[in-house]
Amino acid sequence: MNTFKTRMPLLTLALLLLAVGANAATYAIDTGHSNVSFKVRHMMVSKVAGNFNTFSGTVEFTEGAVQDWSVEAVIDMASINTNDEKRDEHLVSPDFFNVEKYPEMTFVTKGVKVDGDDYVLMGDLTLMGVTKPVELALEFNGEIDDPWGNTRAGFSAEGKIDRRDFGMSWNKTMDKGGVVVGNDVSISLEIEAIKQ
After folding, report:
1. At 18, phi and psi to the nearest 5?
2. pLDDT (tens digit, 9 = 90+) per residue, 111-135?
3. Cβ atoms within 10 A of the Cβ of 25, count?
4. Which residue segments constitute the domains of the chain, with CATH numbers given?
């Protein structure tokens, strides 16, 4: 798994029902300045990227207090956008996300692991009714007071899942070998959050 060189960490697509220390502060994800995206292999020759346009969440964070960090996020699966309307319609269908039955994806932290100078956020990802442990490599991008009196913190996170682990197995075999859709899905999160 890729890890970031960090100065400390996140979310986020943002996702907290974890006991935190008394000094931890709550930050709400600013969706207008955040991004939840993914990439997956297409026909073995390229990677298709997409985003989820609607999501929400909170981050519990105190710089330097790793044991207090946690995140909870909810993603609206119907908000998927890969810049191709027909593909998006297929992705929300029962072949993939089955949005009518499973409208949301959630992530809730279970803890933070320190790996040398790197930080790994460990949590439970629930997708299509299946919950699996996931690890995200984290980077804390800093904290600043904005011109309007808000305190903002920024985080980056990356990880990878196998879509089959969540019951998403649709595919087609090509005549000359290989498949239409890869199984590994790379996740990338850029999160800006406002202290409450």
Report:
1. -115, 135
2. 888 877 788 999 999 999 999 999 9
3. 17
4. 25-195 (2.40.128.110)
